[in-house]
From TrEMBL:
The chain crosses the membrane at residues 6-26. It comes from Actinophytocola gossypii. This is LemA family protein. It is a single-pass membrane protein. It is found in: Membrane. It holds the Pfam family LemA.
Length: 238
């Protein structure tokens, strides 16, 4: 076989290998990017559902109790900012959702002081829906950030970094909460357990107040002393 032909075949084979590797890496970038965008759309759907639930929750609280206006206003404003930030990207959305989480935590802490809410079925139904929504958002955030981490790592490795620059791929933003106090979504489970505790009945006016009897301590048995015996050789008393 001609040596020139061998060289040409080797060069063609190398070109095919390089092009094939470039296409494979490019397609992997494209698949990862599409997976990240799809996972973010799932989070966005859950955020929209959460914002709707918060709006309904606010209306129920307004109708059921004279709720503290400052706390209620804080939730309304934080929700408005979160709704307005949709489409601004995961980083901006994470910032406003962090404020909303803080407002919700304060909201449910104050709500424990209103016993009339425990009898409201709509409030409890929304409470359960909120718990489910928070769990879905937390799971979606973990899935999204895992995909972003794998995708962004390829920008720091060779030859993937070269393919990323040639293909005009860009790193993706994480969706995370920086404040450790609200890093986890606020859980509503058990938020109103204190309202379901048994209440001590109040005695009618004029009746003596009931006094609690202190617990009695167990009585220890005293050792029995045998009766004294008369000394020996002594006549009995007359």
């Amino acid at each position: 076989m001609n040596a020139a032909l061998v060289i040409v075949l080797v060069v063609v084979a190398l070109i095919v290998i390089v092009v094939g590797a470039f296409v494979a890496m490019y397609n992997k970038f494209a698949r990862q990017r599409n997976t990240i965008e799809e996972s973010w759309r799932q989070i966005d759907v859950e955020l929209q559902r959460r914002h709707d639930l918060i709006g309904n929750l606010v209306e129920v609280v307004k109708a059921a109790a004279r709720f503290e206006q400052r706390t209620l206003t804080g939730v309304i404003e934080a929700r408005g900012q979160a709704v307005a930030a949709r489409g601004a990207g995961p980083q901006r959305q994470g910032q406003v959702e962090q404020r909303l989480n803080g407002a919700l935590s304060n909201f449910f802490a104050v709500a424990e002081q209103y016993p009339d809410l425990k009898a409201n079925r709509d409030f409890h139904h929304l409470q359960e829906q909120m718990v489910e929504s928070e769990d879905r958002i937390a799971a979606g955030r973990r899935f999204y950030n895992g995909n972003v981490r794998a995708y962004n790592t390829r920008f720091d490795t060779f030859p993937s970094s070269m393919v990323a620059n040639m293909g005009n791929f860009q790193k993706k933003e994480y969706y995370e909460v920086d404040d450790p106090r609200v890093r986890a979504a606020p859980s509503l489970r058990g938020a109103f357990d204190s309202l379901n505790e048994p209440v001590t009945p109040t005695p009618p006016m004029g009746a003596p107040a009931l006094q609690q009897t202190p617990p009695t301590e167990p009585v220890q048995a005293q050792p029995q002393v045998p009766p004294a015996q008369p000394p020996e050789n002594q006549p009995p008393a007359r």
